[in-house]
Amino acid sequence: MNGADALAVIDTYLDSHLAVITLKNSVNGNVLNRESLKDLIKAVSSGVKEKEARALLLRSDGSNFCLGMDLAMLQSIDTENDDARKTVSSYVELLTLIYTSPKPVICLINGAVKAGGVGLACVCDIIVASERSTFELSEVFFGLIPANVLPFIYSLRIPPQKARYLILTAKRLNAEEAKELHLVDEVFEEEGLEKGLKGIIKNIFRASPKAMAEAKKFTGALYHKNVKDGSDLARDKLLEMIADPKVKEGIRAFNEGSFPEWFEKFKPEKPLL
């Protein structure tokens, strides 16, 4: 990944095995349109494929993380042709790409998130926010519902009735309220945001990349399974992983107080905020 290759509203670079993806049009809300969705899909795909990257960080260059879909674009979409389907499909493709990424995807929020931006944030594995961040599912105000967002937050992050409440009222949540509802995983004061985020990434870099990928795959497969099927799946997965020589070596190293081969220190050259 190379910042020099970045497109108009997205900047990407690799720093200490972290693929950093920056939405850099905060002044205009980092709204999602055909071009920005295309660029984000390309950036996330590049981060997932980058062999040196252990994790991805999605962030913004200012106080707006993402205010959702470009309303002017939505208004101009011709539903009589493929415009609407292509645009909506691009958004779903982006969310699915992040959700199924074998590498952990971390979202850093230090400001406002609305509508489709909530989906973009909540599909990430870990959401870290500052105290000044706000979250709002505001689609009903302009006659829509967060349909494409819901498969990734409905009962995955938010209990069903709470999701319905947030949609019907379009209530703006502060960071602590969002954390209580599990929309956010960690909240830090703004001055402690960088340190808190680095601590999370350092722990990720201590872990086996293969275990990270298997954890994402397994928890996705476990979703909506009954206890019997889930237990059978868990037994088979654990036996499969224990048979891996690298896992055996990792267990040995951990038991002896040494570092397994996948241990990586995180020492970024650039600030994460």
CATH class of the largest domain: Alpha Beta
CATH 4th-level superfamily of the largest domain? 2-enoyl-CoA Hydratase, Chain A, domain 1
Radius of gyration: 19 Å
Query: How many β-strand stretches?
Result: 10
What low-confidence regions span 5 or more consecutive residues with pLDDT below 50? 2-7
CATH topology of the largest domain: 2-enoyl-CoA Hydratase, Chain A, domain 1
N→C terminal distance: 19 Å
The strand order across the widest sheet is 1-2-3-5-7-10
What does this entry look like structurally?
- With 273 residues, this protein is α/β, with parallel strands linked by helices.
- It has two domains: 3-203, Alpha-Beta Complex (2-enoyl-CoA Hydratase, Chain A, domain 1); 208-256, no CATH class.
- 45% of the residues lie in helices and 15% in strands.
- Strands 1-2-3-5-7-10 form a six-stranded mixed β-sheet, sandwiched between helices. The protein has a four-stranded mixed β-sheet with strand order 4-6-8-9.
- A hairpin with a 2-residue loop joins strand 1 and strand 2.
- The longest helix is centred in the middle third of the chain and has 17 residues, at 83-99.
- The radius of gyration is 19 Å and the shape is globular.
- The two termini are 19 Å apart.
Break the fold down into its secondary structure elements and pairings.
Blueprint: E1 10-15, E2 18-23, H1 34-49, E3 55-60, E4 64-66, H2 71-76, H3 83-99, E5 105-109, E6 112-114, H4 116-122, E7 126-130, E8 134-136, H5 150-153, H6 160-169, E9 173-174, H7 175-180, E10 186-188, H8 193-206, H9 209-222, H10 227-242, H11 245-256
Helix pairs in contact: 1-3
